[in-house]
Backbone:
């Protein structure tokens, strides 16, 4: 009985959420209502906006108060996930923004990233696994993620990333191909891969809810990263 009482008093896990390209913290929160409901009582999300305005974004009237943002750019024209950008710009500022959010709004236990935000979260995981003290997280959920093709970013993937991750892959994703998300998963020592039949969104139907909760059940608030288990499909 005492153990059950201790568990009931434990705070939920806290995840810093990183939105996709051309989104913002507010937009991402609006699009993840079903996920937040599915995780209620087990984990809570706090979204942070990328520091960079998208070139040419915010021209429509609806965007003036909440312009679209990005974590880095392939060049002055914008961003393409599959582009091997020769001179990518903006990543260091975004890493600094994530570090600041973790410090100012923490403690956080893990990350939730979507699309370009998932790609950034994977880079944060790589730095965390190398002992970077700016990023005290124990795990990440990466939805529609990918590895940056920019040669300047190649160092993030040279060594297997020893941090637990759940990779959510949409079989019908027409924005980030499933092969790109699975390729990113193989950069990690113990990826758990969750496939769903949908496209480019954060799924939260019953099968995905179970997979999220099963993954999160491996962690307790304030926990250090666990040891590797190897690749797992759910």
Residues:
């Amino acid at each position: 009985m005492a153990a059950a009482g201790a568990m009931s008093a434990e705070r939920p896990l806290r995840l810093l959420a990183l939105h996709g390209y051309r989104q913002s913290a507010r937009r991402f929160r609006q699009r993840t209502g079903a996920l937040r409901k599915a995780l209620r009582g087990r984990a809570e999300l706090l979204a942070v906006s990328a520091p960079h305005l998208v070139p040419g974004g915010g021209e429509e009237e609806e965007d003036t108060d909440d312009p679209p943002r990005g974590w880095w750019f392939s060049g002055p024209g914008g961003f393409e996930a599959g582009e091997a950008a020769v001179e990518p710009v903006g990543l260091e500022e975004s890493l600094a923004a994530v570090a600041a959010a973790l410090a100012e709004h923490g403690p956080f236990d893990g990350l939730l990233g979507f699309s370009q935000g998932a790609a950034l979260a994977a880079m944060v995981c790589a730095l965390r696994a190398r002992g970077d003290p700016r990023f005290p997280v124990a795990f990440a959920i990466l939805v529609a993620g990918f590895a940056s093709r920019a040669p300047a970013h190649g160092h993030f993937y040279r060594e297997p990333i020893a941090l637990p991750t759940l990779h959510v892959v949409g079989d019908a994703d027409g924005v980030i191909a499933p092969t790109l998300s699975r390729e990113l998963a193989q950069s990690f020592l113990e990826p758990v891969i969750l496939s769903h039949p949908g496209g480019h969104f954060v799924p939260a139907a019953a099968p995905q809810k179970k997979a999220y909760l099963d993954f999160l059940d491996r962690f307790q608030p304030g926990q250090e990263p666990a040891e590797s288990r190897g690749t797992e499909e759910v």
